[in-house]
Amino acid sequence: MQAYRRLRKIIKMKKLGYIFALGLIAFLASCASVQYNTTKVQSLDFGQYRTYGWLPPVDSLSKNYFNNDIAKSNILNAANKELESLGLQYTKDNPDVLFRYVSIVNNKSRLVYASPMYGWGGWGPWGWYRPWGMWGMGMWGFGATSYPVGSEKFRYAHLIIEAVDRRTNTVVWQARGSSEIKAPEKSINKLPEVVAGIFKQYPLRKVK
Q1: What pLDDT is recorded for position 146?
Q2: In terms of Cα–Cα distance, which of 102, 52, 31, 69 is closest to 202?
Q3: Residues 144, 116: Cα–Cα separation, whole Å
Q4: Exposure string (b/e) for 61-77, b if CB count within 10 Å is 16 or more?
Q5: Where on the phi/psi map is residue 47: left (φ > 0), alpha (ψ -120 to 50), or beta?
Q6: Is 12 a residue whose pLDDT tops 60?
Q7: Could you tell me whether strands 89-90 and 51-54 are parallel, antiparallel, or unpaired per DSSP bridges?
Q8: pTM greater than 0.70 (yes/no)
Q9: At what angle do helices 191-199 and 69-85 cross, to 10 degrees?
Q10: What residue stretches are annotated with the DUF4136 domain (predicted)?
């Protein structure tokens, strides 16, 4: 009897874990995620830069949805707002640091999986026991299997902003925001949010 109770407890715990996993996947899928990456000259004191200016955007050879006037305005207005909040002042006369940006849109492909098929774990081909599938509950648990049925193309965009020391003409900081594009218009409207996320990577705290 005790062994039977332990077995039921294990099955219950695994089912709860399965439900939690599905909920987590659903939550992550609902998030429009932007991935941010950054690098900088580690030994540099960025507090020495008090004034800034802009270099022309870097030309991109990729298919680009962000080279129109609305996109450029969204990027520059958001960037100026973030830079001012960091205590930097815009000037055209010999600024300490110069900023520039490049936007890149690439076509990529990924595998498409069939809808999961649910069932109890059992003996698979060649005599191997397959209790899990893609998701599963162990020896006596409920599981799901999914398999690739083809591929689909999608568009992936990168917005890169760089800081260039005017005196040395070298890049001292770079940050990138990357995300999938499902509708160019929505991505253009989201550019201020992406720019704000990029400047969170800048090595200065905002001025209160």
Answers
A1: 65
A2: 52
A3: 5
A4: eeebbbeeeebbebbbe
A5: alpha
A6: no
A7: parallel
A8: no
A9: 30
A10: 41-203
Model confidence over 22-61: pLDDT tens digits?
333 333 333 358 999 999 999 999 999 999 999 998 876 5
d(Cα 193, Cα 82) in Å, to the nearest integer? 11
**What are the pLDDT digits (tens) for 84-136?**
999 999 999 999 999 999 998 887 676 766 665 544 444 444 444 334 444 34
Which domains occur in the chain, in start order?
A: 34-110+154-199 (3.30.160.670)
Beta strands (DSSP E) in 64-147 are 89-90, 97-113, 117-120, 122-123, 129-130, 142-145
Torsion of CA 118, 119, 121, 122, to 10 degrees: -130
Query: Quick count: other Cβ atoms within 10 Å of Cβ 191?
Result: 24
Burial of 86 (0-12, 13-18, 19+ CB in 10 A): middle
Backbone angles phi, psi at 58, to 5 degrees: -80, 130
Q: What is the pLDDT of residue 60?
A: 66
User: Taken in order 59, 65, 69, 75, is the CA torsion positive or negative?
Assistant: negative
Q: What is the three-class DSSP state of 2?
A: helix
Name residue, tokens 């899928």. Answer: 29
Structure tokens at 205: 């705290």
